[in-house]
Design goal:
binds zinc ion, alpha/beta
Length: 348
């Protein structure tokens, strides 16, 4: 079926991503999104099209709610799956097929992981129409980093030393609303492309918060932080973590009359919610099959590009033009919308 060096079409893998998105809502795991990562035996041609026998090396669906993980988006889950299966996180030369255009967090991680091409079906406009808007997150990149976060040296001496003592040997930590350490984060990227200190700190904190809520008998889904938490990072957090902090609702001001409804959140991020010690940018290193570490896209470049979101697209990004797969993807979105209206789906 597949000949050596012969070009392979995208249709089957796009259909697979849409099938996964449908399965995800039928199983009530989360949003209507699916993704697969494919490696081709003879690499890619000049247009990024696969050549020779394909191999699916990772699959993912949205698991934000069941994993209590605000960054368990479809594409990141697929990248984590590929890293676990292969025992290394570098995916250079692979194609990411996804049922919907990536959000900026997933794009940052896909770029950092070395993905060579992304092909998606539904657009972010279509996602917005069913309640999944990324506009706020794209807008975050239009402002310079110091408008979202504060260099520790700008704090008064006593407060600065207290935070440095708490951070001690760790790469990042999350403080609760009283200023006590709630979780630490350290680097472990060998089998997880997102295993950087700042992301690990936020993920651990939200999971711990979810466990506490469960112990108290609270049955509500928990996938973000309570109000007033702070992320302290040794380095300027990687762009993917800036967006993660927003998905976790750490950057926003909540409306006290509607604390659980993100639609009422203040749109101006609070720069004191993310503090960094050094002026160095946190990078997203990945490990290749030989154990060598690479940084595919410098975090500083991602932040500094004035033309975002295009700068996030260092990787070749395309939309499917297949009519059959597009209408199937739209049907899944419609099914999600109908299910939400009938109260069958988890609300984000
Ligand atoms: Zn995403």
């Amino acid at each position: 079926m597949y000949s050596k060096g012969k070009r392979v079409g995208d249709g089957f893998f796009l259909a697979l991503s849409v099938f996964l998105s449908q399965a995800n809502i039928e199983q009530h795991h989360g949003g209507p999104f699916g993704a697969v990562i494919v490696e081709f035996e003879d690499g890619l041609d000049a247009h990024g099209k696969g050549l020779g026998k394909p191999r699916v090396i990772g699959v993912g669906t949205n698991h934000v709610v069941p994993h209590h993980d605000p960054c368990a988006h479809t594409e990141i889950e697929a990248l984590r799956d590929a890293a676990k299966r292969q025992d290394f996180s570098d995916v250079r030369g692979c194609v990411l097929y996804t049922s919907c255009e990536c959000c900026p967090m997933c794009l940052s991680v896909a770029n950092g992981s070395g993905i060579s091409r992304i092909v998606s079906v539904n657009t972010r406009g279509q996602a917005e129409a069913i309640g999944f808007s990324d506009q706020l997150q794209y807008d975050l990149f239009r402002l310079p980093p110091h408008q979202h976060m504060t260099w520790m040296n700008r704090l008064e001496e006593g407060k600065r030393q207290d935070l440095l003592d708490k951070l001690s040997e760790h790469g990042a930590m999350v403080l609760d609303h009283k200023g006590d350490v709630f979780a630490y984060g350290d680097v472990d990227t060998s089998r997880d492309p997102t295993g950087i200190a700042s992301i690990n700190a936020v993920r651990k904190a939200v999971k711990k918060h979810a466990d506490h809520q469960k112990q108290k008998g609270n049955q509500e889904p928990v996938f973000c932080s309570p109000d007033g938490w702070t992320l302290v990072s040794r380095d300027i957090p990687h762009p993917s973590d800036l967006i993660l902090a927003d998905w976790a609702r750490m950057l926003r001001h909540r409306d006290h009359a509607n604390p659980e409804n993100p639609a009422f959140d203040g749109k101006t991020p609070d720069p004191l919610r993310i503090l960094h010690v050094t002026m160095t940018y946190e990078q997203l290193p990945v490990m290749d099959r030989h154990g060598c570490v690479h940084v595919h896209q410098d975090a500083h470049v991602t932040y500094q590009q004035p033309t975002l979101p295009d700068a996030l697209r260092a990787v070749l990004t395309q939309h499917s033009r297949g009519r059959v797969v597009s209408s199937a993807a739209q049907e899944v979105f419609q099914a999600w919308k109908d299910g939400t209206r009938e109260g069958k789906q988890v609300r984000y």
